[in-house]
TrEMBL record:
<comment type="similarity">
    <text>Belongs to the UbiA prenyltransferase family.</text>
</comment>
<feature type="transmembrane region" description="Helical">
    <location>
        <begin position="246"/>
        <end position="267"/>
    </location>
</feature>
<dbReference type="InterPro" id="IPR039653">
    <property type="entry name" value="Prenyltransferase"/>
</dbReference>
<feature type="transmembrane region" description="Helical">
    <location>
        <begin position="44"/>
        <end position="62"/>
    </location>
</feature>
<dbReference type="Pfam" id="PF01040">
    <property type="entry name" value="UbiA"/>
</dbReference>
<feature type="transmembrane region" description="Helical">
    <location>
        <begin position="204"/>
        <end position="226"/>
    </location>
</feature>
<dbReference type="GO" id="GO:0005743">
    <property type="term" value="C:mitochondrial inner membrane"/>
</dbReference>
<dbReference type="InterPro" id="IPR000537">
    <property type="entry name" value="UbiA_prenyltransferase"/>
</dbReference>
<protein>
    <submittedName>
        <fullName>UbiA prenyltransferase family-domain-containing protein</fullName>
    </submittedName>
</protein>
<keyword id="KW-0812">Transmembrane</keyword>
<dbReference type="InterPro" id="IPR030470">
    <property type="entry name" value="UbiA_prenylTrfase_CS"/>
</dbReference>
<feature type="transmembrane region" description="Helical">
    <location>
        <begin position="274"/>
        <end position="292"/>
    </location>
</feature>
<dbReference type="GO" id="GO:0006744">
    <property type="term" value="P:ubiquinone biosynthetic process"/>
</dbReference>
<keyword id="KW-1133">Transmembrane helix</keyword>
<dbReference type="GO" id="GO:0008412">
    <property type="term" value="F:4-hydroxybenzoate polyprenyltransferase activity"/>
</dbReference>
<keyword id="KW-0808">Transferase</keyword>
<dbReference type="InterPro" id="IPR044878">
    <property type="entry name" value="UbiA_sf"/>
</dbReference>
Amino acid sequence: MASSEATNASLAYQYGGNHKGGWLAYLPEEWLPYVQLARLSPPVGLFLVFIPHAFGILHAAIRNQSAPLDVARASGLLFAASFFYSNAVHIWNDLIDAPIDSKVQRTRKRPIPRRAVSPRAAFLFAASQALVTGSFLFFMEGNLVENCLYAVPGIISWTYYPYAKLHTFWTQAVLGFALSWGVVMGSISLGLRPVAYKAGQVDFATIVLFTASICWTMIYDSVYAYQDLADDLQIGVGSMAVLFRYQIKPIFWSLVAVITVCLGILGRWEEMSPVYYILVPGGTTLWLGLMVTNVNLADSGSCWWWFSNGFWGVGGFIVVGLLLEYLRIIRFWN
Protein backbone atom coordinates (compact mmCIF):
# COMPACT_ATOMS: atom_id res chain seq x y z
CA MET A 1 0.00 0.00 0.00
CA ALA A 2 2.79 2.40 0.92
CA SER A 3 4.56 1.57 -2.34
CA SER A 4 1.40 2.30 -4.33
CA GLU A 5 0.95 5.65 -2.60
CA ALA A 6 4.57 6.55 -3.29
CA THR A 7 4.11 5.68 -6.94
CA ASN A 8 0.98 7.81 -7.17
CA ALA A 9 2.75 10.72 -5.47
CA SER A 10 5.65 10.37 -7.90
CA LEU A 11 3.34 10.34 -10.89
CA ALA A 12 1.67 13.52 -9.67
CA TYR A 13 4.97 15.34 -10.16
CA GLN A 14 5.76 13.88 -13.57
CA TYR A 15 4.18 16.78 -15.45
CA GLY A 16 0.72 15.57 -14.56
CA GLY A 17 -0.84 19.02 -14.33
CA ASN A 18 -1.75 18.65 -10.65
CA HIS A 19 1.26 20.10 -8.80
CA LYS A 20 0.63 21.80 -5.47
CA GLY A 21 4.02 22.42 -3.87
CA GLY A 22 6.54 25.24 -3.94
CA TRP A 23 5.32 28.73 -4.72
CA LEU A 24 1.85 27.38 -5.56
CA ALA A 25 1.21 26.96 -1.84
CA TYR A 26 1.09 30.76 -1.50
CA LEU A 27 -1.62 31.28 -4.11
CA PRO A 28 -5.32 31.65 -3.31
CA GLU A 29 -6.95 28.22 -3.51
CA GLU A 30 -9.27 29.28 -6.35
CA TRP A 31 -6.28 30.24 -8.56
CA LEU A 32 -4.54 26.90 -8.23
CA PRO A 33 -6.52 24.92 -10.87
CA TYR A 34 -5.86 27.60 -13.50
CA VAL A 35 -2.14 27.66 -12.76
CA GLN A 36 -2.14 23.86 -13.01
CA LEU A 37 -4.00 24.02 -16.32
CA ALA A 38 -1.38 26.38 -17.73
CA ARG A 39 1.51 24.19 -16.43
CA LEU A 40 3.22 27.13 -14.76
CA SER A 41 4.83 24.89 -12.14
CA PRO A 42 7.21 23.46 -13.06
CA PRO A 43 7.62 25.81 -16.07
CA VAL A 44 8.60 22.98 -18.42
CA GLY A 45 5.86 23.87 -20.90
CA LEU A 46 7.12 27.42 -21.38
CA PHE A 47 10.57 26.18 -22.38
CA LEU A 48 9.20 23.35 -24.52
CA VAL A 49 7.57 26.10 -26.58
CA PHE A 50 10.33 28.72 -26.41
CA ILE A 51 13.49 26.67 -27.07
CA PRO A 52 12.65 25.95 -30.76
CA HIS A 53 11.98 29.67 -31.18
CA ALA A 54 15.44 30.29 -29.73
CA PHE A 55 16.91 27.93 -32.35
CA GLY A 56 15.32 30.01 -35.09
CA ILE A 57 16.33 33.34 -33.56
CA LEU A 58 19.97 32.33 -33.21
CA HIS A 59 20.17 30.79 -36.67
CA ALA A 60 18.71 33.94 -38.23
CA ALA A 61 21.08 36.07 -36.15
CA ILE A 62 24.04 34.09 -37.51
CA ARG A 63 22.82 34.34 -41.10
CA ASN A 64 22.01 38.05 -40.93
CA GLN A 65 24.78 39.03 -38.49
CA SER A 66 22.06 40.78 -36.52
CA ALA A 67 22.86 43.43 -33.94
CA PRO A 68 22.84 42.15 -30.33
CA LEU A 69 20.02 44.53 -29.39
CA ASP A 70 17.88 43.12 -32.21
CA VAL A 71 18.57 39.57 -31.03
CA ALA A 72 17.74 40.52 -27.44
CA ARG A 73 14.53 42.22 -28.54
CA ALA A 74 13.40 39.24 -30.63
CA SER A 75 14.27 36.85 -27.80
CA GLY A 76 12.38 38.86 -25.21
CA LEU A 77 9.37 39.26 -27.49
CA LEU A 78 9.12 35.57 -28.32
CA PHE A 79 9.81 34.48 -24.75
CA ALA A 80 6.84 36.57 -23.61
CA ALA A 81 4.72 35.27 -26.49
CA SER A 82 5.76 31.70 -25.64
CA PHE A 83 4.47 32.18 -22.09
CA PHE A 84 0.94 32.87 -23.30
CA TYR A 85 1.21 30.40 -26.20
CA SER A 86 2.23 27.63 -23.80
CA ASN A 87 -0.69 28.50 -21.54
CA ALA A 88 -3.13 28.39 -24.45
CA VAL A 89 -1.99 25.08 -25.94
CA HIS A 90 -1.77 23.28 -22.59
CA ILE A 91 -5.25 24.42 -21.59
CA TRP A 92 -6.63 23.46 -25.01
CA ASN A 93 -4.96 20.08 -24.82
CA ASP A 94 -6.39 19.41 -21.34
CA LEU A 95 -9.84 20.51 -22.47
CA ILE A 96 -9.96 18.09 -25.40
CA ASP A 97 -8.15 15.32 -23.50
CA ALA A 98 -10.32 15.50 -20.37
CA PRO A 99 -12.35 12.32 -21.12
CA ILE A 100 -9.10 10.39 -21.69
CA ASP A 101 -7.23 12.04 -18.80
CA SER A 102 -9.92 10.87 -16.39
CA LYS A 103 -8.95 7.25 -17.20
CA VAL A 104 -5.17 7.65 -16.85
CA GLN A 105 -3.55 7.32 -13.43
CA ARG A 106 -1.05 10.14 -13.93
CA THR A 107 -3.58 12.66 -15.26
CA ARG A 108 -6.92 11.78 -13.67
CA LYS A 109 -6.57 14.55 -11.06
CA ARG A 110 -5.94 17.33 -13.53
CA PRO A 111 -8.25 20.32 -12.99
CA ILE A 112 -10.90 19.45 -15.61
CA PRO A 113 -11.24 15.70 -14.82
CA ARG A 114 -11.50 16.46 -11.10
CA ARG A 115 -14.05 19.22 -11.91
CA ALA A 116 -12.06 22.04 -10.38
CA VAL A 117 -12.48 23.95 -13.67
CA SER A 118 -15.48 23.66 -15.97
CA PRO A 119 -14.98 23.02 -19.71
CA ARG A 120 -16.51 26.41 -20.48
CA ALA A 121 -14.15 28.23 -18.11
CA ALA A 122 -11.19 26.31 -19.55
CA PHE A 123 -12.19 27.24 -23.10
CA LEU A 124 -12.50 30.93 -22.22
CA PHE A 125 -9.15 30.81 -20.42
CA ALA A 126 -7.50 29.18 -23.43
CA ALA A 127 -9.08 31.71 -25.81
CA SER A 128 -7.86 34.64 -23.71
CA GLN A 129 -4.29 33.30 -23.75
CA ALA A 130 -4.46 32.67 -27.50
CA LEU A 131 -5.63 36.23 -28.15
CA VAL A 132 -2.78 37.68 -26.11
CA THR A 133 -0.35 35.45 -28.01
CA GLY A 134 -1.71 36.71 -31.33
CA SER A 135 -1.15 40.31 -30.27
CA PHE A 136 2.62 39.73 -30.33
CA LEU A 137 2.48 39.37 -34.11
CA PHE A 138 1.93 43.14 -34.30
CA PHE A 139 5.35 43.73 -32.75
CA MET A 140 7.37 41.30 -34.87
CA GLU A 141 9.63 42.46 -37.67
CA GLY A 142 8.14 42.50 -41.15
CA ASN A 143 4.70 42.61 -42.71
CA LEU A 144 1.84 41.80 -40.31
CA VAL A 145 -0.18 39.85 -42.87
CA GLU A 146 2.84 37.76 -43.82
CA ASN A 147 3.64 37.12 -40.16
CA CYS A 148 0.07 35.95 -39.61
CA LEU A 149 0.32 33.60 -42.60
CA TYR A 150 3.51 32.13 -41.18
CA ALA A 151 1.74 31.54 -37.84
CA VAL A 152 -1.14 29.57 -39.41
CA PRO A 153 0.57 26.14 -39.71
CA GLY A 154 1.56 26.30 -36.05
CA ILE A 155 -1.96 27.22 -35.00
CA ILE A 156 -3.50 24.43 -37.08
CA SER A 157 -1.08 21.79 -35.79
CA TRP A 158 -1.60 22.79 -32.16
CA THR A 159 -5.38 22.81 -32.62
CA TYR A 160 -5.28 19.31 -34.10
CA TYR A 161 -2.70 17.83 -31.73
CA PRO A 162 -5.03 16.65 -28.92
CA TYR A 163 -7.16 14.84 -31.52
CA ALA A 164 -4.16 13.16 -33.16
CA LYS A 165 -4.02 10.27 -30.70
CA LEU A 166 -7.50 9.26 -31.87
CA HIS A 167 -6.44 9.07 -35.54
CA THR A 168 -2.79 8.04 -35.69
CA PHE A 169 0.06 6.38 -33.82
CA TRP A 170 2.36 9.21 -34.94
CA THR A 171 1.17 11.75 -32.39
CA GLN A 172 4.78 12.61 -31.53
CA ALA A 173 5.36 13.68 -35.13
CA VAL A 174 2.34 15.99 -34.92
CA LEU A 175 3.64 17.46 -31.67
CA GLY A 176 7.11 17.74 -33.20
CA PHE A 177 5.73 19.78 -36.07
CA ALA A 178 3.71 22.02 -33.72
CA LEU A 179 6.60 22.72 -31.35
CA SER A 180 9.23 22.98 -34.07
CA TRP A 181 7.23 25.56 -35.99
CA GLY A 182 8.80 27.83 -33.41
CA VAL A 183 12.01 27.54 -35.46
CA VAL A 184 10.19 29.24 -38.33
CA MET A 185 8.66 31.94 -36.14
CA GLY A 186 12.03 32.58 -34.51
CA SER A 187 13.61 32.96 -37.95
CA ILE A 188 11.08 35.49 -39.21
CA SER A 189 11.44 37.53 -36.01
CA LEU A 190 14.86 38.58 -37.36
CA GLY A 191 13.85 38.85 -40.99
CA LEU A 192 14.86 35.39 -42.25
CA ARG A 193 11.96 34.06 -44.33
CA PRO A 194 12.17 30.23 -44.62
CA VAL A 195 9.81 30.40 -47.58
CA ALA A 196 9.83 33.39 -49.92
CA TYR A 197 6.31 33.14 -51.32
CA LYS A 198 6.75 35.64 -54.15
CA ALA A 199 10.17 34.39 -55.24
CA GLY A 200 9.23 30.75 -54.75
CA GLN A 201 12.40 30.08 -52.74
CA VAL A 202 12.96 27.86 -49.71
CA ASP A 203 15.71 28.38 -47.13
CA PHE A 204 17.01 24.82 -46.78
CA ALA A 205 19.19 25.58 -43.75
CA THR A 206 16.08 26.54 -41.79
CA ILE A 207 14.30 23.43 -43.06
CA VAL A 208 17.03 21.07 -41.81
CA LEU A 209 17.02 22.79 -38.39
CA PHE A 210 13.23 22.44 -38.33
CA THR A 211 13.55 18.75 -39.25
CA ALA A 212 16.14 18.12 -36.53
CA SER A 213 13.82 19.74 -33.99
CA ILE A 214 10.91 17.53 -35.07
CA CYS A 215 12.98 14.35 -34.70
CA TRP A 216 14.27 15.48 -31.30
CA THR A 217 10.70 16.06 -30.11
CA MET A 218 9.65 12.63 -31.38
CA ILE A 219 12.33 11.03 -29.21
CA TYR A 220 11.77 12.86 -25.94
CA ASP A 221 7.97 12.86 -26.18
CA SER A 222 7.91 9.14 -26.96
CA VAL A 223 9.94 8.54 -23.79
CA TYR A 224 7.39 10.70 -21.96
CA ALA A 225 4.53 8.67 -23.45
CA TYR A 226 5.84 5.43 -21.95
CA GLN A 227 4.72 6.71 -18.53
CA ASP A 228 1.13 6.10 -19.66
CA LEU A 229 1.64 3.08 -21.93
CA ALA A 230 -0.46 0.62 -19.90
CA ASP A 231 -3.36 3.08 -19.68
CA ASP A 232 -3.09 4.04 -23.35
CA LEU A 233 -3.20 0.39 -24.43
CA GLN A 234 -6.31 -0.16 -22.35
CA ILE A 235 -8.05 3.00 -23.55
CA GLY A 236 -7.08 2.49 -27.19
CA VAL A 237 -5.34 5.77 -28.04
CA GLY A 238 -2.36 6.08 -30.35
CA SER A 239 1.27 7.00 -29.81
CA MET A 240 4.66 5.81 -31.00
CA ALA A 241 4.96 4.02 -27.65
CA VAL A 242 1.75 2.10 -28.38
CA LEU A 243 2.82 1.34 -31.96
CA PHE A 244 6.32 0.05 -31.21
CA ARG A 245 5.91 -1.06 -27.55
CA TYR A 246 9.35 -1.98 -26.25
CA GLN A 247 10.92 -2.37 -29.70
CA ILE A 248 11.25 1.37 -30.30
CA LYS A 249 14.95 1.92 -29.64
CA PRO A 250 16.03 1.16 -33.25
CA ILE A 251 13.56 3.90 -34.28
CA PHE A 252 15.17 6.22 -31.76
CA TRP A 253 18.63 5.49 -33.18
CA SER A 254 17.36 6.25 -36.69
CA LEU A 255 16.00 9.58 -35.48
CA VAL A 256 19.31 10.35 -33.75
CA ALA A 257 21.08 9.73 -37.07
CA VAL A 258 18.71 12.10 -38.90
CA ILE A 259 19.27 14.78 -36.24
CA THR A 260 23.06 14.43 -36.49
CA VAL A 261 23.00 14.67 -40.28
CA CYS A 262 20.64 17.68 -40.26
CA LEU A 263 22.74 19.58 -37.73
CA GLY A 264 25.87 18.73 -39.70
CA ILE A 265 24.29 20.02 -42.92
CA LEU A 266 23.29 23.21 -41.10
CA GLY A 267 26.88 23.73 -40.00
CA ARG A 268 28.21 23.14 -43.50
CA TRP A 269 25.60 25.40 -45.08
CA GLU A 270 26.35 28.28 -42.70
CA GLU A 271 30.13 27.67 -42.62
CA MET A 272 30.15 27.18 -38.85
CA SER A 273 33.31 26.93 -36.74
CA PRO A 274 34.63 23.74 -35.07
CA VAL A 275 33.03 24.85 -31.78
CA TYR A 276 29.61 24.52 -33.41
CA TYR A 277 30.35 20.96 -34.56
CA ILE A 278 31.61 19.93 -31.13
CA LEU A 279 28.63 21.34 -29.23
CA VAL A 280 25.69 21.03 -31.60
CA PRO A 281 25.99 17.85 -33.71
CA GLY A 282 28.54 16.37 -31.28
CA GLY A 283 26.92 17.24 -27.96
CA THR A 284 23.42 16.49 -29.21
CA THR A 285 24.39 13.08 -30.56
CA LEU A 286 26.25 12.19 -27.36
CA TRP A 287 23.38 13.24 -25.10
CA LEU A 288 20.72 11.50 -27.16
CA GLY A 289 22.92 8.41 -27.34
CA LEU A 290 23.11 8.33 -23.55
CA MET A 291 19.35 8.83 -23.35
CA VAL A 292 18.46 6.05 -25.79
CA THR A 293 20.97 3.66 -24.23
CA ASN A 294 20.08 4.22 -20.59
CA VAL A 295 16.35 4.98 -20.41
CA ASN A 296 14.31 2.13 -18.97
CA LEU A 297 11.05 2.42 -20.85
CA ALA A 298 9.30 0.10 -18.39
CA ASP A 299 10.10 2.42 -15.45
CA SER A 300 8.01 5.58 -15.16
CA GLY A 301 10.63 7.32 -13.03
CA SER A 302 13.37 6.61 -15.58
CA CYS A 303 11.14 7.87 -18.40
CA TRP A 304 10.43 11.08 -16.53
CA TRP A 305 14.12 11.67 -15.72
CA TRP A 306 15.28 11.12 -19.28
CA PHE A 307 12.40 13.11 -20.77
CA SER A 308 13.29 16.10 -18.62
CA ASN A 309 17.07 15.82 -18.86
CA GLY A 310 16.97 14.78 -22.50
CA PHE A 311 15.09 17.96 -23.30
CA TRP A 312 17.36 20.26 -21.29
CA GLY A 313 20.55 18.55 -22.41
CA VAL A 314 19.89 18.67 -26.14
CA GLY A 315 18.22 22.07 -26.02
CA GLY A 316 21.17 23.41 -24.05
CA PHE A 317 23.80 22.06 -26.45
CA ILE A 318 22.03 23.53 -29.49
CA VAL A 319 21.29 26.92 -27.93
CA VAL A 320 24.79 27.34 -26.48
CA GLY A 321 26.44 26.16 -29.70
CA LEU A 322 24.42 28.55 -31.85
CA LEU A 323 24.93 31.39 -29.38
CA LEU A 324 28.71 30.95 -29.36
CA GLU A 325 28.71 30.83 -33.14
CA TYR A 326 26.70 34.05 -33.27
CA LEU A 327 29.13 35.74 -30.87
CA ARG A 328 32.01 34.61 -33.06
CA ILE A 329 30.34 35.95 -36.20
CA ILE A 330 29.82 39.42 -34.72
CA ARG A 331 33.37 39.35 -33.30
CA PHE A 332 32.08 39.72 -29.76
CA TRP A 333 35.38 38.47 -28.37
CA ASN A 334 37.49 41.10 -30.20
